[in-house]
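quick one before i forget lol
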Amino acid sequence: MKKVLFAAMAASIVAGAAIAEERYVMITHTQGTDPFWPVVEKGGRDAAEDVGATLEYNFDVSGDMSAMAKLIEAAAATQPDGIIVSLPDAAALGPAIKAAVADGIPVVTINSGLESSAELGALMHVGQPERLAGSKAGERAAAEGVTNGLCLNQEAFNTALVDRCSGYFDGLGGELNMIDVSNDPAQIETRTAAALQADDSIDGVLAVGPHVCEAAQKAIEAVGADVHLACFDLSPGVMDMIEAGDAAFTIDQQQRLQGYMPVIVLHLYNNSAGLLPGANIPSGPGFVDQSNAASVKALAGIDR
């Protein structure tokens, strides 16, 4: 009987050690000010708990791409079981990702960088096709009467956000009109107001982040402009704006999936002889407007 108990305890210890050894590192380009990223992080931590792994989440508050590349290099040096990384600037982050892959570390890219993911050696990408999402927003804005648009980009270095803005004007059928508003809500409001005052023919604004949309709405109200406002992503504030009619719609890319699915993919890849989905996982786009806002409002900023 003692031998049986000892064997069971030993098996339990071994199993516990195996679980502890499965460790993933997620690195994103947030500066810690965007309400989008805590939902991604939560998704990753929920998945890690579900598969019995650990997740380390890192970002650099400067938003500098060279600093983010150093985080990838530092993570790779610890030999984790996988790295999950957003890819807003493939030129800046690519060498660090390629080096991690060369060291035998499986990498999954998320959010930004769909077009560059495979060439850097990543297993796959989880996120929405950004130009398509922007195009859908522009098509809908045009159908709702917009003729002269403005796109607010809070991260000028981020190719995904440029794709959103470019797609918006594909949908509208106009030339790209994009301004850098920064990630600071006060600057977003000031720069948006200045742009609207400089051109009173602007009748549509696309804000490619939820905090940007909230600040833009304040600017629109302050200058008294009659403008169709569309957003990307969900936040409690954005949901209130949609319900109040201050924003027409927002594009939902279901960012919890961008945190959750890579952990599941890496766990299966590492524990099931390279088991891997046969294609990238598109997490969006989808529309949230007054017709369905109530059904997702409670999840905004938490799971959506």
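fyi The CA atoms of residues 199 and 290 lie 29 Å apart.
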